Amino acid sequence: MDYRSMQLQQLADGLRARDFSSRELTESVFAAIDKTEPVVGAYITLTRDIAMKQADRVDALLSEGRELPPLAGIPGALKDNIATAGIRTTNASRMLADFVPPNDAFVWRILRQQEMVLTGKANMDEFAMGHSTETSAFHRTRNPYDTSRVPGGSSGGSAAAVASGEACFALGSDTGGSVRQPAALCGIVGMRPTYGLISRRGVTTFSSSLDQIGPMTRSVRDNALLLDVLAFFDEKDAQSVARRTDSFVREADAPFGQPVIGWPQSYFELNDLRGDVKALLEKARDFYASIGARIVPVDLKTLDACLAGYYIISSAEGFSSMNRFDGIHYGRRSDGGNSLEDIYFHSRSEGLGTEVKRRILLGCYALTQENYGDYYLKAAKVRTIVKREFEAIFRTCDAILTPVTATPAWPLGSHPEEMGGGKYSNDRFTLPPSLTGMPALELPAGMTGEGLPVGMQLIGPRFSEGALYRLAAAFEDAHGLLPTPEEVKA
Ligand code: GLN
In terms of CB atoms within 10 Å, which of 7, 141, 196, 333 comes out highest? Predict the structure, then answer.
């Protein structure tokens, strides 16, 4: 069946109208997985048997005439840092290669109650540290639009699964951009909601003051629907906040009005921003002006400071959250070593990859007594300054339009390993919302001449998800969905 041309609401309607069964839908998605997965490699673990059972269960409930929640019977994927009881959850690390969690993450519990069909656990950068999914201890994921290129990361498996039709939707996690950046490089829609809007309970912590879960979908309304399902207060996540709307989908469909969109000129003058990326963003800006938005230049000075501040804060917090993986408390225990210290040493040496070790070392360095004031405290101050800068802009603007990445997807293996290189700075546009806790929505802006997707980012003040969806829906309604990789190749 042709599920690729249908959005989530249409799939839900089709299942209820009995136009097709959940089994048919699920089998079609697994047929796509059989065809594409050997090349794309979006998953670490496939859960075909579980999926078929879930599909049959939904079909049985539907034939009893039961009313089911919106995602019932629809196949989706979860990033492999989201705990799924009884299903291996590896964080793409050797350290947790055989780890089967005893509990469900809050979001998976909600999705199970929704009767969603789980296709599998998606590949990612190890412990979500990275931006190309190449730090996974298992295998690389390839970009469905050009399989010689990266899908982005760290939620690269989730993005590639949705882009290639190996899932109808997916969840990722976003600490510094890991939902928005791979969504942009794979031509799908990715939301980083307001900090705390989706519970992180049961999601492996990278950097607690930054981590967020985000919906990854083909369309804007799919994304709003998924957020509607997931945004619930969780008293067991200390950072959880209550939503302020009963329907993001309805807000996406509200009249466009005359929003004010900030255009940070300095972002578009950066040397590494590719010309075709810039041109697509300017076209988007002109489109918004043509339908009644007011575009105003805004002055943002903190982008470089965000980059430094983010890597200090995330590595410092990452250092402390990684401490528990020592082969004794958690994680695979090395056979080498007789003393306690030896066991720690060998377990961590063998179990963790280079990028994770690099972050641990950087975080540890920044937190030592001699360095704390120069690095960690300074980074915390940077964070406050960035917050004030954005809050000031949102006194007069409804949203800010920015690039997501300076370039489209780059070739696999092409980025230098060393810190401070292009690899890290290519990420910088996604960092301000992470540091400020503000929501940011990525959606496709178009494609380059070589057929690679380019994303744009709409940033808004806290709890402005509805307004961001409305802006994005207006663009999507006028431009249509991006052609799928299959359509591009045809
Ligand atoms: N690429 C960024 C990093 O490597 C962001 C990762 C993330 O959001 N999980 O830290």
Answer: 141
Question: Measured from the CB, is residue 430 less than 6 Å from ligand 1?
Answer: no
pLDDT at position 425? 74
Number of Cβ within 10 Å of residue 238's Cβ equals 10
Q: Tens digit of pLDDT for each residue in 144-176? A: 999 999 999 999 999 999 999 999 999 999 999
Tokens representing 347? 């377990």
Amino acid at 342: D
By C-alpha distance, which of 173, 252, 183, 147 is closest to 404? 183
What pLDDT digit, counting tens, does each position of 324-352 carry? Answer: 999 999 999 999 888 999 999 999 999 99
Classify residue 105 by its DSSP letter.
-
How is domain 3-252 classified at the architecture level of CATH? Answer: Alpha-Beta Complex (3.90)
Please determine, for residue 385, whether its predicted confidence score (pLDDT) is greater than 70: yes
Of 178, 199, 347, 464, catalytic: 178
Report the DSSP beta bridge partners of residue 217: 189
240 is catalytic: no
CA-wise closest residue to 44 among 110, 109, 94:
94
Please state, in angstroms and rounded to a whole number, the distance separating the CA atoms of residues 471 and 254: 10
Instruction: At 249, list the tokens.
Output: 């989908």
Average pLDDT rounded to a whole number, residues 377-401: 98
Q: Which two tokens mark 396?
A: 């007069």
CA 129/CA 356 separation, integer angstroms:
7
Residue 407 pLDDT grade (very low, low, confident, very high; cuts 50, 70, 90): very high
What are the Cα distances from residue 444, in Å, to 124, 346, 404, 480?
21, 44, 10, 10
Ligand 1 centroid from CA 377, angstroms? 21
Of all protein residues, the one whose alpha carbon is nearest to atom 10 of ligand 1 is 129
Q: Is the dihedral of CA 141, 304, 239, 402 positive or negative?
A: negative
DSSP 8-class letter at 296: E
Decide: 441 and 404 in contact? Cβ < 8 Å. Answer: no
Q: How far, in Å, CA of 167 to CA of 157, rounded?
A: 10
Q: Which range has the worst mean pLDDT, 114-123, 395-404, 424-433?
A: 424-433
Q: Binning pLDDT at 50, 70 and 90, where does residue 418 land? A: very low
d(CA 236, CA 78): 21
Whether 28 is catalytic is no
For residues 445 and 281, the answer to whether their CB atoms sit within 8 Å is: yes
Provide the pLDDT confidence category of residue 128 given band limits of 50, 70 and 90: very high
The active-site residue, picked from 21, 154, 164, 207, is: 154
Query: In ligand 1, which atom is closest to the CA atom of 128?
Result: 9
* Sequential DSSP letters for 356-404: HHHHHHHHHHHHSTTTTIIIIIHHHHHHHHHHHHHHHHTTT-SEEEEES
Quick check: is 178 catalytic? yes
